[in-house]
Each structure stands twice: as C-alpha cells, then as structure tokens.
Amino acid sequence: MSLLHLAIISPFLLAILVPIAYKLFRQIHTGWFVLPLPILLFSYFISYLSITSDQQSVTKSFSWIPALGIDFAAKVDGLGLLFALLISGIGSLVVLYSIYYLDKNKEQLNTFYVYLLLFMGAMLGVVLSDNLIVLYTFWEFTSFSSFLLIGYWYHREKSRYGAQKSMIITVFGGLSMLGGIILLYLMTGTFSISEIIAGSDEIFSHSLFVPALLCFLIGAFTKSAQFPFHIWLPDAMEAPTPVSAYLHSATMVKAGIYLVARMSPVFAEHSLWLWLIAGFGITTLFWGSFSAVKQTDLKAILAFSTVSQLGMIMSLLGIGAAALHFETVDDSYFTVATTAAVFHLINHATFKGSLFMVAGIVDHETGTRDIRKLGGLMNFMPITFTLAVIGTFSMAGLPPFNGFLSKEMFFTGMVRVLEMDIFNLDTWGFLFPVLAWVASVFTFIYSMILVFKTFTGKFQPEQLEKKPHEAPIGMLISPIILASLVIIIGFFPNIIANTLISPAQAAIMPVEGYVYDTHIYFWHGFTPELFMTLGVITLGILLFVTLPKWRRVYDFLPEKLALNRFYDSGLSGIQHVAHKFTKWYMNGSIRNYLVYIFTFFIITLLSVLFLKGAFKFDASNVSAIRFSEIVLALVIAIGAITIMFVKSRLTSIILLGAVGYTVALFFVLFRAPDLALTQLVIETISVALFLLCFYHLPQIKDEERMPFKATNAVISIGVGLVITLIAFSAHSNKLFDSISQYYIDNTYEKAAGKNMVNVILVDFRGFDTMFEITVLAIAALGIFGMIKLRLGGGKKNENK
Amino acid sequence: MLNTVVLSAILIISAATIGLIYRVIKGPTTPDRVVALDAIGINLVAIVALISIALNTSAFVEVILLIGILAFIGTVAFSKYLEKGVIIENERDR
C-alpha cells in the first residue's frame, strides 16, 4: 500500500475518528477536526502536477482479489488529477463553509461530517481508480453517501423523498454501469482501464460493444443528471447547502462526466457515442436552462442551471469524440470541443460552488430562498452581492470572467460541427449551434434573475423571517476564494492551460506522440462566436426586461412535460401494479396455489415429453397379467372413484381405508410380506386418525357432495395422464440392469440375515432408517407440542 | 387341480368382498358399514391365505394373524365409538 492509496482511503479512516472527536470535544465545532484533511490532500495532489504536466502518469497497485483480476490500482493522470484537485480543493472550502453554516448546538455534526468524509473518499476513489470493479465500488459509495447527505434532515418529508429519488435513479444507473463493466470484461478479459484502452481497437467490432457502450452511458447519464434522468437533482436540493455546493455542483454530478471522459478512448470510435452524448447533452443543456427560468427558489434555479451546464460539458465531450475521425494535419481544429469541456468543467466547479454558497448565505441571513420574497438585499449584503455578480456573470458567459472564455470555446466547438461530414452530421449538425445558442439565451436570463431579483428591486422586510445583515466573515471566505479563482482564471486562463487542461485532454484522447498544447485566447477576432455572444447578450437583456409579459408561457407548457410526473406516477404505478398482481395471484387460497403447481407440473412435463420426443411405449419387457391382479385393480379403482362421489365424509374415510387394505393385498400378491404387514397396521392407524378428525369437525347440517369444477377435473385428469405416460416411458427406457443381485447374493453371506428387506433396512442402507426414525420422533414431538402448548389460549403456557 | 380350486375360491371370495364393499358404500346405517368392514377383514384373511397357497410360500402367515387382530380391534373401536361417542375415555383428565 502506497501513500497514494492511503490518500484515497484517509477520508474513510478519519470518518471513523470523527464521532469520537465529536463526543470528546463538544465545545469545538467538529468541522475543525475535519478541515485539515482535505487541505492536506489538496497539497499532496498538487505535488503530482509536475508529473502530469509532462503527460506522464503514476500507477500504484495494491492487491485486493487477485484471483478475480481485481486490484486496487490507483492511477494519477491528467484527468484523474484534475478531478482529485477539484474534490479536495472544493472539499476544503465546503468544510470551512459548513463550519459557519451549521450550528454546533442544533445539528448532529458527527453524522454530517462522517457522511461528507465518506463521500469525499468515495469520490477520490472513483476518479483515481484504474480498475473498473474498484471504480464501481467507489461509485456506489458516492450514491450511498449522497443518499445519506440529502436525507440529512431526515425528519423532513421532502428530504426523504429527494434522498429516495436520487438513490433509485443513481443506483439504477450504477447497476447498468456494472453490466457494462462485465460486458467489457467479457470482451477484453481484464478490469484494468489502461489495459482496456490499450486493446480497444480489437473490441470495436465485437457484438457486445454496443450493449456495453449503452450500459456505460446510462450509468454516466443518471449520475450526471442528463435528460431524462435529471429529475433527481432539483429534489436533492433539500440537502444542507454545503452538500448541494459540494455534491450537486462540483463533484458527484461530474462523476458521470468523468466516466464519459475516461471511457472515451474505448468507445469514441463508434458513431453512437458521439450522437448519444452530444444529442442528450445538448437536449439537457436546453431543457435545463429553459426550466431554470421558471423556478422561484434560489437553489432550484441553481439545480436546473447545474443540469444545463452538465449537459453543455457532456455535449462538448461528445462532439470532441469526432476529432478521432479526422486524421488531418490540423489536429487541434476539432479538439477544441474537448478543451472547452475540460475548461468549462473547472469553471463550472468554481462559479457554481460559490453561487451555492451565496444562496446558502442569503437563506441563512434572511430565512428564505424564495426570490418572490427577496429583493433589494444589495445594501445589506454588499460582499455577498459582489460574489453573486461574479458568479452569475461568469455563468451567463460575460467577459471578463472565466465563463466567457469557456462559452466562447463552446460556441467554437458547436460551430465547427457544421464542417464535419461524418455520421450524418452534415444534415442534422446545424441543430447543435442553434440549440446551443438558444440555451445560452435562457442561461443568460436565469443568471440575471438570480442576481437582480435577489439583490436589487424592492426590499420587502415584512416577508422575511429575519432582519437581513451581512454574513460572518468565516462564511464568506470560501465563496470569496472561489470567486477570485473565477476572476483569476478569467484574466489569466493560461496558467491552468498547460498544467491542468492539456494533461486531462491527453487522457481523454490519447494520441501517440501528439502533445496537446492548449492556449486560450481572450480575443479571437471578429468570429461567428463573438457575434453569437453579442446576440445572446442583446436578446437576453431584451427577454429579461420583458420577462413578466412572456412568463405565462411556463404556466401551461412545462407542467405538461414535467418528467417528475412521469417518475412519480411511474413509481406509484409500479407499486400499484405489483400490488394488484400479487393480490391477484396470491389470494391466500391453497386450492389456487395447488392449481398453479399442478398446471406447471402438467405443462412442463408434458411439453418435455412430447417436444423432446421422450415418450416411448415398449411392451416387450412386460410380464403377463394375472386375473387376481385385475380384480384387485378394479377394487382399488372403484374405491378411489367412489370417494369423489360420495356424500358423507365417513364413507370417504372408510373407502380410503378399503383402498389402503387393497394395496396391502397387492403387496401380498407381489410377494412383499413386510410391506403388507406395515401397510395394514399403518392403514388402520391412519383411518383411526381420520375418524378422530372427523369426530372433531364442526357440525355441518347438510353434507354435500364435492362440487364439480371443470378446471379441477381437467387438471386432475392431466396429472394422472402425465404420471401414467411418464411411468410407461420410464419403464420402456430402462437402460441398465438392477443392482439387486448383489443383495440377493450377499444378504446371508455378509450380513447374516435371511430377510432381505430387513437386512437392507438396517444393514445395507441403515442410514436412511435412522432418519426415518428421526422423522417419526419429530412428528410425535410436534403433535405432542401442538396439543400441549396452546399459547394465547385459556391455559397458561405449561412449560413455564 | 389344486390351482383350479384355489383360483375359484379366490374368485368366490372376491365376489363376496365386492358385495360387502357395496354394503359399505350404500349404508344405510353406520353399523351396517362396520359389520361389512369386519366381514371384509375376514375375507381378506381368506384371500391372503389362498394367495399364499397359490404362491406356495409361508411368508404371509403373519399378515393373516395381523389382519385378524386389526379387524377385531377396529370393529371394537368402531362399536365403542358408535355407542359412547369416544374411543379412549379420559377419566384422569388433569
């Protein structure tokens, strides 16, 4: 186990210690004990930057289940390191923020930080694993800890609803991904991502390739809240704000992005990959931004905005895959989409994290997050306002913030789709820039709503629960750091270009011998992208000003299309249908179950008998039928048939006894004296027992004949027929001689007995006899117990 | 000769048994059925004895004895049931 492994599992180890610290030091906020770890991890991962900047990677393996090819292999390359830095960096800021956000007297801090640390460790594990099974393990850990964090205030109904919803959707995707992993293993014979990538050319034409691709995409789409699986994310906003900032903007929702980026070298050759990712990404982008405008809750706007921005990154990753198909001289022409994806990934983490924290501050200091109640907070919270302006303007894609740069690159990538002539992109490709542009207009509108409806306009003190004032400095540190990153990256994008973006890009699209040299320019000249941005700003301002006039569009349009309704009615529908189905077939009647059992028996055996041609009738090996046998058979048949038609139960019992005695006679006839003896005694006793039961039956006035039912008749005739046919067929198919000659020869020789049946029972096969005795003992004890122990009856338990 | 005699004896007794079975089924009262059952038991003794002659074996002597005992016990139990309503009286009920 290396230091790298220790770094990954250190959050888990600290999670064990947190409750102890919480119990021992009640007066100190538990968050202070947690804070050093992410900072330490962040600085540790910084030390890897020098390695990955040279497009190198470090792999450390640790044996877990070597027999199954599962090793805890940790690999640090550009992509993994980028995510690890985001996780530990924003993790530190979120922990710091949460120290001021959560009250140490009112909240259960131990559970909060345990869950948060579990999540952090799991997330680090996801991005640094080189083994798919290990990745999956950590992946489910993130779903699980996210479930716990969303349901942190478990006394609230909506928290529980959101937690359950996110759990169902992300675990559904996770299991699908597991299917994809298994398919990949079947194709390549290894779980190691590096080895799979190295051998990816061979699996392209494999028949399992497309199913594996689809399975992985479902996993990535559910985790990253892509259309139509985005519905869990807005409901996850019931979590405490630090959790929303951390999980649902910066880290967990990007696990799907990470997966797509990581598996790109394996799958990107296929046109489905490009079409599905780019198509669903752009749809999500549009739908998320469109839905965000109608929200009235600050966190709901941010949630839909996250959905939309994730769709943007996803679509860029999809378009970026096209670069693999052009082996032209100017390689970087189509790779700009991937660059934009990685760049926007960083940008989004910075500004969205700060915006969530701003929303949390507003909530904390005014008592509400409803923008209809908020307004005019600028004078009370100048610092928060500044932070909100930086975050939202960056989100809207305005200069000079970093969002502007990535949005420009996004447009560049989308415009260049027009020049692609593969996978039918020349016919439908124009949709990409159009949708991207429309979505950007909506992005602009909701960004403006977010900042101006909250901080400007009329101040409504009567609507607020608290008297608003500026947040404590500790709460402001984290968003200030993130906002300054927004500005720093905005002004000097190239400080991260070659250290973070290029190595990540090299991991997404590994091309032999090609060194990515990313350079981000502020000024492109008068390109289409610039005019697109100008158009977004103009139309966005226009629409924002006239918002009250066209807002009614939302009143009837999206409600009908809301996917939540599908989810809710689907969930309750499944429950309803399952309940109905269970009620229908499990109606508690034993007759019914016997009908199922016998019908199944008839159908399977008869179909096997005839479909497989197993039926055979061979009379050559049959002995002659004697007259006495016919008579006895007639007696049994008459007895058995009469049982069904008699009225009184007493007669049935006596007839049953008659049948039993005739069977004893058969034993006599077929020379089985011991069987005959036992049969006679047992038959007598059981008839006596039947009579006992009969005597205790409740009085029924008119004993009626058994009612006739056609299905019962058909089934019983069917069972008799099947058994008869199988008996014929089994007799006709005898393959080997009996082994009874051995017993005949050795009963006296070896076992010193002349009665062969008894010698077999107690000597050759005495083991069976022992357990038959046990069965009888259990039956006797059971009967004794049932008679003696009548719990809940009049008598008290006699055993006590 | 012996075989013919045995076989015809078995036939006759079987016919008698069938007649008795008719009585068991038909009724009309329970004592009728009990008496018929007792007679069937005795007929079974005869049938088993005849069969052992036909099969030329002495292995079924115990069966004959057992049927005798069982028929007796059964008839007694039935009679007691019909008369008293119980078979085993439980005087020492705690």
TrEMBL record, chain B:
This entry's Gene Ontology molecular function terms read: sodium:proton antiporter activity
Q: Which residues cross the membrane?
A: 6-25, 34-54, 60-82
Which cell locations does it reside in? Cell membrane
Gene Ontology cellular-component terms for this entry are:
plasma membrane
Provide an example Pfam family for this protein: MrpF_PhaF
Query: Which UniProt keywords are given for this protein, alphabetically ordered?
Result: Antiport, Cell membrane, Ion transport, Membrane, Transmembrane, Transmembrane helix, Transport
Q: How does it sit in the membrane?
A: Multi-pass membrane protein
For this chain, the family text in UniProt reads: Belongs to the CPA3 antiporters (TC 2.A.63) subunit F family.
Q: What is this protein called?
A: Multisubunit Na+/H+ antiporter subunit F
